[in-house]
Amino acid sequence: MLFSKKEPYPRNYPNMPVPSLEPSAGQKAQMDRKFGMFIHFGINTFNNTEWSDGSLPIESYKPTAIDADSWIKTAYEAGMNYVILITKHHDGFCLWDTHTTKYSVNYSPVKTDVVKEVSKACEKYGIKLGLYYSLWDRHEKSYKDDEAYVQYMEKHLTELMDGRYGEVVELWLDGEWDKTCRRWQIDRLYNLVKSMQPNCQISINNTIGKFNNRKGLPSKRYMPKNYQYGDPIRMFPCDFRLWDPHMCRADDPKIYTFNGKEYYLPFEYTICSRKEMSWFYCDEYSKKPLTDAEEIINNYRTLVNSGNVMVINLPPDKNGKLVETDVKNLMYIADKLSIKRKID
Predict the structure, then answer these.
(1) What is the CA radius of gyration of the chain?
(2) Is 221 helix (H, G, I), strand (E, B) or coil?
């Protein structure tokens, strides 16, 4: 049952992070991955919107194909070492084989398990798999009942993390602004994931700062460029820091505090291939300007030199294909960084 506000947080689960001034083995492995691809794909793709409220008709999800092999092949050729795939965005639509909700691919015109297809391609090309999951859910009826909704999320995370999709190296949690980490029971979710995927690195967006009760987000003082040694961890437990799409500075500090204890947390920078924060594909997507390649190259070098990582979002279109100009720009970046690979 949901614990009372008088109980300590976090609870004494067996898989909690250990205070440390040095990176753990899992954090070192994440830092070594350096460069990855974010893949936003879902019901929003077919409705020309970035966010939706869970009311879009499931019949609208109808990709003509899902070419996951080409997504991961592109990541491999661009010198990337992992991908992060959307599994459920704020709309609540699930992209994997689940019967926990009828708002999923299982009940759509195209029943392909997208997570499975991506995991198979990752295994083929030697790319590590990471998953994005929105805590916020604008479709699920149990959402207003904290305990019932945590149980709903536990079912999802078990399906995603129990090994049916192989190793999962990262879990990117989003939508946290609607509740506190205590109400989400992040400690409980963190422990569950670690019990199945011990090396999975977990974080929650807007990780650092103090809760702003009016907006639910930390103030600009806690943007990545303003992080200071010992700043408070807002979303605990976690293994690294997130605040998309903001970049950290070259002398990015790594030590942050929760309940008076210090934790080492690297930073993952997430950016869109297009300007204007274009996460999902839309009909006007190709007309939007590309994010400057030289800016990405310089930021990559800054991040890697400071023990951090970068992911670039390349959203597949309605035909399940990456956009050609996105791929061309990415390959230019990889070439300039001397990390481009060839398929044997």
Answers:
(1) 19
(2) helix
Residues 271, 310: contact at Cβ < 8 Å?
yes
Question: Among candidates 231, 230, 96, 242, which has minimal Cα distance to 174?
Answer: 242
Torsion angles phi and psi, residue 314, rounded to 5: -125, 100
What are 262-310's pLDDT values in tens digits? 999 999 999 999 987 899 999 999 999 999 999 999 999 999 999 999 9
Strand partners, 128: 82
Query: pTM for this one?
Result: 0.97
Q: Which residues contact 57 (CB under 8 A, 6 or more apart)?
A: none
Residue 198: both structure tokens together: 């011990």
- Cβ atoms < 10 Å from Cβ of 292: 12
- Contact (CB, 8 A) for 171 and 130: yes
Q: CA 23, 27, 29, 31 torsion: positive or negative? A: negative
Give the contacts of 298 (CB within 8 A, at least 6 positions apart). none
- For residues 238 and 161, what is the distance between their CA atoms, to the nearest angstrom? 17
- Residue 308, CA distances (Å) to 28, 32, 38, 71, 326 in order: 10, 9, 16, 24, 23
d(CA 145, CA 152) in angstroms, rounded, equals 10
Segments in the chain forming alpha helices (H): 25-33, 68-77, 114-125, 146-161, 181-184, 186-196, 293-305, 324-336
Cα–Cα distance, 269 to 334 (Å, whole number)? 17
Query: Cα separation of 39 and 146, whole Å?
Result: 29
Residue 162, CA distances (Å) to 84, 156, 157, 166, 267 in order? 17, 10, 8, 8, 26
